[in-house]
Amino acid sequence: MKSYADIENGVVPSVCSLDCPDQCGLLIHKKDGKIIKIEGDPEHPVTKGSICNKVRNMGQRIYDDKRLETPLKRVGGKGEGQFVPISWDEAIETIASRWKQLIAEEGAESILPYSFYGNMGKLSAEGMDRRFFHRLGSSQLDRTICSVAGSAGFRYTMGGSFGSDPEEMTETKLFIIWGVNAVSTNMHQMMIAQKARKHGAKIVVIDVHKNQTGRMADWFIPILPGTDGALALGIMHILYKDNLVDRSFLKEYTVGYEELEGHVDQYDPQTVASITGVPVEDIYKLAHMYGTTSPSMIRIGNGLQHHDNGGMIVRTIACLPALTGQWLVKGGGAVKSNSGYLSYNKEALQRPDLLKKPTRVINMNQLGQALLETEKPVRSLFVYNSNPAVVAPEANKVREGLSRGDLFTVVHDLFLTETAMYADIVLPATSAFENTDIYTGTWHQYLHLHEPVIPPYGESKPNTEVFRLLAEALGFEEQALKDNDEALVQQAISDVTTPYFPDITYDELKNKRFVKAKNTDEHLRHLQTPSGKIELYSEQLERKGLPPLPTHMPLIEEPDFSFLFVPGPNHNFMNTTFANNDKHVKLEKEPKLFMNQEDAARLGIENDMLVRIWNHRGECELTVSVGDQVLPGVVVSQGLWSDTPGKKYLVNALTPDRIADMGGGATFFSGRVNVEAVRGEKTV
Ligand SMILES: Nc1nc2c(c(=O)[nH]1)N[C@H]1C(S)=C(S)[C@@H](COP(=O)(O)OP(=O)(O)OC[C@H]3O[C@@H](n4cnc5c(=O)[nH]c(N)nc54)[C@H](O)[C@@H]3O)O[C@H]1N2
Ligand SMILES: Nc1nc2c(c(=O)[nH]1)N[C@H]1C(S)=C(S)[C@@H](COP(=O)(O)OP(=O)(O)OC[C@H]3O[C@@H](n4cnc5c(=O)[nH]c(N)nc54)[C@H](O)[C@@H]3O)O[C@H]1N2
Ligand code: SF4
Ligand SMILES: [Mo]
User: Other CB atoms closer than 10 Å to residue 517's CB: what's the count?
Assistant: First the structure.
């Protein structure tokens, strides 16, 4: 049978590779060997044929004129963008000889990989790359930029990333969409909620910004950033006081419910209202709604945990369904991430045994600091699946580090990204459509195999192939560094020890394309917490010096600045992916800063003015949108925009590289800024 990539005309199956919880099944329409249309796969059990506009327009990114076709070598200064094409042989030889020299002179720890999930495929994002860097003995990267604080928080309560099944949520009667801009970032969650609404379900959205998701809610609750833990504790206070807790559930499935009852006494509605900005009567109303509606479901977002106290916030919210016994109700409970159900054979895929002795670990949120460190400096950076010059916090430090003349930087990407502009060598990457890979759901619970649907673009190569080439050039003999992609998939899905991973072979997966995690009915009786139960009281946290019971912990003060600044993602980009594609930029128009009218009036700022946003870390300039979408004292922007000549769109110039309370997580949304009009004139 012809491979999908060789089919010239027809429709072939695929799956979305982007860092999005929906992980949609796709159908790719081809004509004369090229993609002419991308649509949803109606056979996919959860995404059912609908996809977002971003990926509907993905073809324009795949065939964008700006896509890299060959390796490049820098000929101008760092950041200037002058490159000439070179062969793969020369590129690999240049990297290998430089690294051999560095290893001999300063040790392999002077080399740092930097990657994230530009492609969610296990082989591409955490497969051959991990094997290679383990064998190399380079510095290791702690991949903390996205959701680790919340995942750690959820784990303290529930033992791991195990939440409710979206396929059961058609039964749900109350959705609390908490700190997640689901219309843009998890559209099928919103579609399920809307369908349930037709049968009487209510949708409550709790957010610092009344954005596209808040506008669709039956009830939108605005809240001050970083205070959601206090709101959850206020709800607990009322649930206990008004006898809305399920004591038999608490007794059987939890530890610490009696200590928690005494502890939440201090979180009376008045106190909580003063912390959160949510009025007392709304706290009562929400607690009673939550305590009396079944099934009730909390979708916990990533917005909540990009804060100094993000781990504790998620841990606290994750306790709520235990108080009401909702974990046992079909369509009830909570979901932050469901990645635990499909946790595959990581040892076999990543081969940590290839790392002969422990090496230093660098937190990716502190890349700027790491590159500016003069003791044991990082001498070489290898970037793939990520664009740190725009996405990492303290962007000015990151760029200062990337500008270092003595730093040998390699970037493997589909485009000449802002980061690639600082590279010595740029390598062209295939898109996920050109690769073999497996994808494991993080929200729905399906495993997917992806086979290439088009041939490689130009001379581009997949991540797995680049690391095989580098291993060969460095003289690494291990078979693990030679395995082909099919072998990698087989190793990842074989001998999996978790009870939920489906028993499946490569060929079966090839035929079925998507397979669900196994039945999890008994899950609550075998949680992976130390006690095996839901831990309302956590001794683990106590040992770490954190409060063992859920507790409101205020954000770190930055006293000279008036506004909390929340620079989140936008609708038409995926982090910086699509921020360089004309179609998506046109749809998004321009980045805005949302500000409350009271603040704007006080500062003499009018709608559509260009404003300067600044703090001790840096500055940027955005057009202001004045209104009631945010509370006073808060400003919000959307999107990680590309460097554009004459524009200062780099929001991460302002964000802190402080580390969150748990997991080494990012604190993008806990920074403070001042805002002032730039010229007093309107931009439109
Ligand atoms: N269209 C689109 N989709 C995406 C992405 C994208 O860039 N664009 N990125 C993908 C990635 S990598 C991720 S991690 C997810 C992220 O997607 P989400 O989980 O939705 O997270 P964010 O969009 O960062 O933040 C969600 C919401 O939290 C709010 N928020 C911020 N701070 C607080 C707070 O303290 N309390 C409350 N209640 N709300 C708060 C923000 O206003 C925002 O509306 O989306 C993925 N999907
Ligand atoms: N201010 C602020 N900053 C944030 C966030 C925020 O909300 N606000 N969100 C944070 C979060 S949650 C995340 S997850 C990060 C995301 O940050 P990144 O993971 O850096 O995400 P992208 O910007 O999409 O960059 C992915 C890059 O990978 C490339 N790529 C895609 N597929 C492949 C492949 O197969 N091989 C190779 N070699 N390259 C490939 C793409 O072309 C793209 O340039 O950003 C973080 N930064
Ligand atoms: S980005 Fe998300 S919603 Fe869009 S196609 Fe991919 S998985 Fe589906
Ligand atoms: Mo993310």
Answer: 23
